[in-house]
Model the fold of this input.
Amino acid sequence: MRDRLRPLAGRAATDLPRGYQRLGKVLLLRLPRSLSPFGSRVGELYREEMGVETVLGFEGGVEGELRRPRLRILAGERTETVHQEEGILWHLDAAAIMFAAGNRSERRRAGELVRPGERVADLFAGIGYFTLPAAKFGHPQVVHAVEKNPRSHAYLLENVRANRVEEVVVPHLGDNRTVALPLGAFDRVFLGYLPSSLPFVPRALELLDGSGGWMHVHLVVSSPKSWAQDAREEVARAVLAAGGEVLESHPRRVKPYGPARTHAVVDARVRPPPAAAAGAASSARG
Done:
């Protein structure tokens, strides 16, 4: 590909990206600035060599609360695709829906964390990032999956059907703070929002069973050396501020998140405040 690009791009051809992310029939590239003027030709080269329908170029970062990736089409037209990973089928629009390669281990781990018979809430379900592996491999009683983005929610519904977990997953379209979820009724809550899901810890606490349960809190921490301690302490402060109690916690590095920043997740076993547990019991009796 470098040889084919060199007559057009000259020495810049040596900057051709070595890495890429493939999602079904769509390829995603991080195109260096030196090759930006030749984006369409680079896209065509990758499309021919890799046998994909469409090539997208990262423009950098994500936009807005719904975290739409900043991408442009380098070659091709169709951006909807079906991606297979870890035994799961993912239907998505690669140009509109974030599907981070660096989160693969966390998607897999969701299916390993959930125990048979558990009641699970996924408050940022997206297209099913944690919901699908949890439902398919964890054998839970139920997974309530909440997603605010209508387009992501549509793919969530499609993916639930494609992976045959309709009997386990209860999808909700809306803001997880206002969607009607049963209080005090869950053993495990996933909080997979970046740059920080800490503001949603109080909501998770009121959803957890009064005897306690697990929450998986995703956040970005700045200190490269003390990221684990910082992540653990930030989650502990959020839980205590909401009246809960941390029984144990385990920080885990997910991936780098820009210069000197780390995407971390803290697996925390917590006990909700007594008032929340009493309110949940009252709600259940009503």
User: Anything to note?
Assistant: The two ends are 67 Å apart (CA to CA). Residues 178 and 203 are 10 Å apart (CA to CA).
